[in-house]
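The instructor's notes for this session suggest beginning with a concrete chain rather than abstract definitions. Hand out the sequence below and ask the class to guess, before any prediction is shown, which regions might be ordered.
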Amino acid sequence: MIRKAANLAAHVCSTIGIWISAGLLVYMVVHVNLEIILRSFFATSTNAMSEYVGYALGAMTYLSLAHTLRSRKHVRVSLIQALGSQRGTLWAELFCLAATFVVFSFAAKYVWAILYRDFVRGSVSPSLMQTPTWYIAAAVLTGLAFLLVQIISSMFDAIADGVPEDAVEGD
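After discussion, reveal the predicted structure:
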């Protein structure tokens, strides 16, 4: 029951994250092309391309982490898997997932502190656009939360089904 709930939550989070990331990628391509057209043919600019494309890239990176882990497309060193027993491999997998959870929880705690501080203070970027800086922290925190949910789901899956096979290139 808990495993099903964790898997459903992870599926929803990773799907939302990857679709938002895909939308941000489309936005970045459109914005860069718009900037090229404006500069080349109209001698003007949006004056925001590098700032907003940078924000989108950062958000896209964090929002896609959960999907990357879920689809097992992350960088993975499987030497321990090849040398160890099934039980040893399971314990190594659980240790790595737990350590990853702790590290990213620590990061999420500090991103939350930054988000809260920037929101309360009304901090804005030191650029012409004066974008509220908590927008960026909110996207990063959302991506980290999605990843933490996926890590919990992966732990339940490893306990129930064992360590899954690595994804093969082309899958």
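Then share the key points. The helical segments are 2-41, 49-63, 65-70, 79-83, 86-121, 134-161. The mean pLDDT is 88.
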